[in-house]
Amino acid sequence: MLKEYKTVKEVVGPLMVVEGVEGVKYEELVEVRVQNGEKRRGKVLEIDGDKAMVQLFEGSAGINLRDTSCRFLGHPLELGVSEDMIGRIFDGLGNPIDKGPKIIPEMKIDINGSPINPVSRDYPSEFIQTGISTIDGLNTLVRGQKLPIFSGSGLPHNNVAAQIARQAKVLGSGEKFAVVFGAMGITFEEAQFFIDDFTKTGAIDRAVLFMNLANDPAIERIATPRMALTCAEYLAFEKGMHVLVILTDLTNYAEALREVSAARKEVPGRRGYPGYLYTDLSTIYERAGRLKGRPGSITQIPILTMPEDDITHPIPDLTGYITEGQIILSRELYKQGIQPPIFVIPSLSRLKDKGIGKGKTREDHADTMNQIYAGYASGREARELAVILGESALSEADKAFAKFADAFDKKYVDQGYDTNRTIEETLNLGWELLSIVPRTELKRIREEYIDKYLGKTE
Length: 458
Known about the structure:
Helix content is 33%, strand content 25%. The strands form 4 sheets. Strands 9, 11, 14, 16, 17, 18, 19, 20, 21 and 22 form a 10-stranded mixed sheet that branches. The chain has a 7-stranded antiparallel sheet with strand order 1-7-4-5-6-3-2, with no helix packed on it. The chain folds into 3 domains: 3-76, Elongation Factor Tu (Ef-tu), domain 3 (Beta Barrel); 79-353, 3-Layer(aba) Sandwich (Rossmann fold), CATH 3.40.50.12240; 364-454, no CATH class. The protein is of the alpha/beta class. The protein contains 12 helices and 22 strands. The mean pLDDT is 91. Produces ATP from ADP in the presence of a proton gradient across the membrane. The V-type beta chain is a regulatory subunit.
């Protein structure tokens, strides 16, 4: 028998204090009935003796303390899951918003997930093809990895996210692949862009979308990524699918966390974010991976916009500690009209070496990757040197590298948002660009590969 409490004593922002409660547990779901009969939902954030602090999902506007009652439902926030979710669009709390029928759940799962025993984790080692050369060729995504995209305000991270969701696939046949897309605090226009793109290209047929809009309650934003990951865990570990989870924008999520922290009058950390931001982000990122003995996997691509393009800001800074690398979008390349504007020099995939090579991509992948990276870095230095000292000050090798860097930007990076390159095409394009550089400068590639792909010297 659920008790109903009429002892709401205080409401501050999205938080409500209820007194005289018994047997209430942390994270328990709460049903709040306001004076006009409207029902709102919340969860228990803190318990102190017979007092419970409740966090409201729909906000506290218009609540009358005297006539408001609460019922504690005895279970945490759950998501009803089923394979029928594929191809559907939900709001941030898992309610269908695509005018389709309600989901009949196969089971209900706590959205906070269960901790994965580190011993049962399998090491990520299989290549995922995104069709984007700068990722596949130089910062390879591996099945079970978490690889964030660091962007800036106004940069086309949404186009990159849609392109990856549309094009990503696991090489090899007969494996079920799905995309779970979680959007937090995006505008209606952005949401419509994703829905239209997924629908038009047919990607919706293998995708599940969770949409939390900018005008939805900020508190819903805290639940949205966990809803998306709960759906992904069900598809991966119960149904044996390989799931790619794309979460955008983690900065909006952290802002919502800061809002709740301020309402709780917690001591702020860096830039006003709560001191537990690192721990909280890890509860999202660490839900990626593979389990031994289970066929499915979860690969994560979280997207975050760096405030003022500052990579030392707490959100990208802490994300970099938890995840396995980062893909960085460059404002400089964006201004040059390069699409997608991925800057490969500071970008990194820490697991790329595990997902490439013979039997996975091609035997020359590691060598060409290292050589292209080194050549591009040398070419950018040579270009900067030419601006200061003039082109006559450059050696022949420097001029070749500068030419290589220009061609790399125009041909390799600037592929557009609709070009889907296979890994073979990406590697062949790499060799085509490396032919610009004198063979004597290809010091990071084995001679046998140079002979095979560039032809033997007479």
